Amino acid sequence: MAVFVRFAPSPTGLLHVGNTRQALINWLFARAHGGNFMLRSDDTDAKRSTVEFAEKIKRDLNWLGITWDVFSRQSDRLKRYAAEAERLKQMGWLYPCYESAEELALKRKKQLSAGKPPIYDRSALSLSYDEKAAKKTKGILPYWRFKLNHKIVTWNDIILGKSERDMALQSDPIMIRTDGSPAYFMASVVDDIDFSILYIIRGEDHVTNSATQIQIFHALGAQPPMLGHTSLIVGADGSSLSKRLGSISLEELRETHKLEAMAINSLLSGLGTNKIVPANTLGQIVENFDITRYSRANPHFILDNLIQINKKILQETSYSDVADRLLDLEVNGGARFWNAVRGNITRLSEVKEWWLLLNTPIKPIIAAEDSAFCITAADLLPAEEPNAKTWDLWITAIKLKTARNGKSLFMTLRKALTAKDYGPQLKDILPMMNRKKIIARLHGEIA
Q1: Which residues pair with 7 in a beta bridge?
Q2: Which CATH superfamily groups domain 80-176?
Q3: Which part of the chain is the Glutamyl/glutaminyl-tRNA synthetase class Ib catalytic domain (predicted)?
Q4: According to the model, what pLDDT value does residue 243 have?
Q5: Disulfide-capable partner of 386 in 93, 328, 390, 414 (CB 3.0 to 4.6 Å)?
Q6: Backbone angles phi, psi at 165, to 5 degrees
Q7: What is the spatial distance between Cα 211 and Cα 229, in angstroms, rounded to a whole number?
Q8: What is the pLDDT of residue 371?
Q9: What is the structure's pLDDT at 353?
């Protein structure tokens, strides 16, 4: 049977590094096994789900290169969930409950105060027919829970290995809300059955949910998918990602931090394994992907590491891969300019600074004691417009005339020509500057 996985975000917010990692791992797993990847929009929470967030999730996945073979929206399948809920009712798996949110909160508070786990007490099961009828008369609508079998649920997790949960320690999950809409457990299991999902791979915070869903699969007469649970990302100091870095969305990494999609793919796919390798294509990551490499230790997300990967990827990116984006930045230097500056940028947007430096007026930095040297250097500049041979000829002449060498030679020229003490090799950028501009800057003029 072909591998079929799904990524099922709720469109109640932007994708962040945590759930993006889950999307990427699922996509890589599917592609590495020649299988299919499904994007499912879990939008049954009508109050919080928005079309805007749903579209932004698609946009961000597309930006990363994560494409889907199947798309489904839960709000389009409400009749299907209702039919399966009715079947579960007829089989005796669902039972109606009438407590308000406030009443449930009070019950949990009392249980915790008594040192007991906050598990639903199944008091609704003891309601008589007349008591239920009385609530209906008062306009109190029921919500429906799934009656768990209080036994040990076990499975062989493809990441964690043998796993188990004691279902006597879990609350019966809510399946149908008071307004008749399906809750998470109801819709999710029906979808996984109907779309023949073979693997469910998600964060370890879903382990208990998985145990619950195994029983729901069986109640509906279906074989549960194979399960895998990855460790959760934490911050640099080991604190919860949701508390420290939950606001770091894909949109922020792209729009604010100006990072490359492949830098994010490289880091997130490697977090939790013993090796993070900067990759220029998703195909490279697919070739080396192995789900068994993910460990149980919580990987640390460090933004500076992502930025360094971004720099490494740009250094290895060919001009043809960025040509259109450079034109969008109004940088028209072609391959020669890109090859000269790519080793000195951390983000692609920084190329604009170097382009302007070469093509718009700047104020040179020339120390008083270097003024005469710079004028001499200007006089020694070869008469023709700079070309690939100019630098070597020019530097040889300067050394012979001034006896300068090393930093006193090269740093002085760099500051005069670029107003910076770092940057691309002067030999590479000199041919991109006209002779008149070079001489003017060496004379300390704004040019």
Answers
A1: 39
A2: Glutamyl-tRNA Synthetase; Domain 3 (3.90.800.10)
A3: 3-306
A4: 46
A5: 390
A6: -145, 140
A7: 12
A8: 96
A9: 95
